[in-house]
């Protein structure tokens, strides 16, 4: 027997520090939603995330013109069919996870910060910490919090309390998450740490994250290519 091929998740990140994200590359409905946001900082983050997400969708589907709108529950909702996206940002860095099909998917990016150790007891039980290996100061706590934040998005927010999303260790060091008080099937969580940022991706087990980093120029090249 051959094993079923895993569905790839493209996890695309872009640091927009060196270049402004041009709103003219947004679609008409996206521009309208951006214009309604409060304050220039929130709007800048939104545009950066959308352009990164639109580039990820182009790489996954090959289609142009897909817009990523905000659904009533706050989740990103692409206008194209047969694809799922999740967005996150911190500082000047935007991250998008995109995969074919309509499946649970969540992504979160956080700077590794030792101050997260203080908040760990508020969001998880002691046995949950064993699910994530320890590392330098702040790494385990940032990973645990980021995994739960990604799970909130993947499960579409059945609870707003991070403590209700329970982590557990699986085979070969894998990490899984389930929601207390629900019969929702558990999801897997992957972690990747690079350049001081922890990225967590939450999705069904039959998936496989593929990480790519593009400069703003390369993102714009993807969006404007014929």
TrEMBL record:
SUPFAM superfamilies documented for this protein: 4'-phosphopantetheinyl transferase
Protein name per Swiss-Prot or TrEMBL: 4'-phosphopantetheinyl transferase N-terminal domain-containing protein
Domain 4'-phosphopantetheinyl transferase N-terminal: 40-98
Xref: Gene3D superfamilies: 4'-phosphopantetheinyl transferase domain (3.90.470.20)
Species this protein is from: Streptomyces cinnabarinus
